[in-house]
């Protein structure tokens, strides 16, 4: 092994060094006490064995014994074994002690008088041994020792420092009888060195896997071993089980076979189940029920399934926590090791598990406030189909479940439909709900098929209106816009309720614009939808039509009118608790419009309001708002926060889809933002990966094009970065014009088009970009972003500082640093061309400081190169010092705030709420903090924060 340690000790170098130091002090005549503690399987015995070997090598007298896990251990058995009373019967003192013990009771030493005498003789024997040579007494698994042995340990601990005696005690957190509690208390009162064994790190686990499997581990094996949470015993049990069952292939690397792990899991369950024998039977029964509920569970859930009170089960749960089986997870508890949970789960007979899952579903449904997905998960795990109660529950809960856990809802509904739902109305409802979920999952063809099935068995006009709605959405999302429009037109010929006519008209308006860019037709249809919706008094239809009108106004750059429409839509929706998806869409729209009006601080406030709504509606991990927040923070120069928002997003189609409202989610936008930051930070590998992924699927509709502009801009800057400005300019050619009905804000990219065109002496391309930007500005209802961009383009093209100054002051006043940095750079270049080197040098310094704040190292190099052509060098500026990669100073401002909140004891949910983040984004920040600080837990973050700046830690809890 690379560490030079035996395989079983890899990753324990620091702990063994502590023991070596204690042994070295013993040889010098100074004794003491070392405690080695940790959960079962964490490596205590291996470390103790290594310490014994080191002690023997050092020339000390080494005495070693392990306590017996017997129901009624013999009194003083541990100490007698350690001091080798029987084994060294030729030693006069030991022979006398053995005769004394046997004289009273040959079999068991139970007399209190004998105990007292034996204890004194044992203590005297230890003192005599220490007088002969420095002595090391190593007692392993002390938690199983009898009380008399524990009493001797307490007394030895109090005298060890006065003798050349090193007392090494190893024990688990449980069991904790009265004798162990007294011993622990006594050890705290002496100069005791405690070694608390935590989980092994990733490198040590890889070395351990190599040792067990016979070759360096492959990625699948490493990922599976991570379920052991760093416990070396569990890693060994897992891999040895896999090797026995032929589940590992060994070549250049050892990795999993592409076969089922069911057989391995059964074998592993049996192996690990024996490791839980130290837990009381009652506690094990509770843990098995908890295992049914998943990795995490609420205490009330376990109590409900058991039909007991939380007080009744609290002692058993506390024992499981002390044993390291369970850990605190905020308002919930969790299994520390997924493998232990799996072992408990797989250890139950299949028939029992099925019945318990079914009972758990009913019990959870009876608890107020339990999320429906918890009940649904139990129904799914039960494997039962056609249960009357389960089907009634699913029919009642389907609308909510489809929003909160769409894939889970889809699997349950699909299973029931395949089994056969006799009631036609239930079958239609299940089919329609399943179709809508499949749309979100990107399975559009299946969604359309289910929607058609629902239409075939549905006779109620309102139900048919809903089915048409879903079918049209499935067709549009699948790329068949003409079929979607035809479906809506066919539906509108039927005798449907006005509410559904209004909703279908709203969808028709959306598809007319998004599919083919028919803006005038979409606007007229939206107004019909609004009129019909108001006549029907349908809140959803009214708000939906208003968002349609918001869209048509936005395309025409009538942002004040667009803002009025979206505010009216939100006001309408505020009158009801329904239609959360439409409200989310309207909140997105409002943030977008405020940015277009250059009201950046208002846009930030709107994002906070939106996330408060998500919190109130229990939708705090809505991925769409993470993308919206990422766009906003990009322009505000908070690029680390942008990346954290993007990293928190599940990159699936379902995570970024406006269900039933408009076009598919912005996958292109996700990759475009990530690629653009990577390019500007000169992370070429990351940029290439995102560009490749984003460009894999070409845009088809107008709505698709609207999400590709960040990606195209990143592609252009990457080409320029690689020294090909002509290619860069060609990539941006598609941004010079908008397709009919297209929303894309082309003005935000056109200054770069002008700069690149002038750099390659393409005056016609530069003039075209300037004309396009001026057209955008002229269309604005009030001067805003496009107007500032037009001034920027004008100053560049005409080499005129005045319009550039106007753009610069606008960006400075509204607080948008990314656009400010670019304008300041270009103004510095133009001033240098005019010979104004003094002001040019001052401005380029400001630009470089701004770029440094974003981490835009490539922008810095480009700007410096442009100014060097005019003889201007920026010099070294302190504000541009690169943030270190590791340590406390590596934390971003957001990470620093979160670290302080972690130190204050705030949960992830509390932090997310107070900082207007999603839980996933908050957890992403915490993961970054742990990585930068080289830590493994929130406790370590808290300790570092208290050491650094205790006064900054919030106390208003």
Automatic annotation (TrEMBL):
| Ranges where the HTH luxR-type domain occurs | 884-949
- Asked whether the UniProt record includes Transmembrane helix among its keywords, one would answer no
Report the SUPFAM superfamilies cross-referenced here: C-terminal effector domain of the bipartite response regulators (SSF46894), P-loop containing nucleoside triphosphate hydrolases (SSF52540), TPR-like (SSF48452)
List the SMART domains hit by this protein, alphabetically.
HTH_LUXR
Q: Which UniProt keywords apply?
A: ATP-binding, Nucleotide-binding
Question: Does this UniProt record's set of keywords contain Nucleotide-binding?
Answer: yes
Concerning Gene3D superfamilies, the annotation shows: P-loop containing nucleotide triphosphate hydrolases, Tetratricopeptide repeat domain, Winged helix-like DNA-binding domain superfamily/Winged helix DNA-binding domain
What PROSITE patterns is this protein classified in?
HTH_LUXR_2
**InterPro entries from the xrefs?**
AAA_16 (IPR041664), P-loop_NTPase (IPR027417), Sig_transdc_resp-reg_C-effctor (IPR016032), TPR-like_helical_dom_sf (IPR011990), Tscrpt_reg_LuxR_C (IPR000792), WH-like_DNA-bd_sf (IPR036388)
Superkingdom of this protein's organism = Bacteria
Pfam families the record matches? AAA_16, GerE
Q: Give the protein name, as stated in the record.
A: AAA family ATPase
Q: Which organism is it from?
A: Streptomyces peucetius
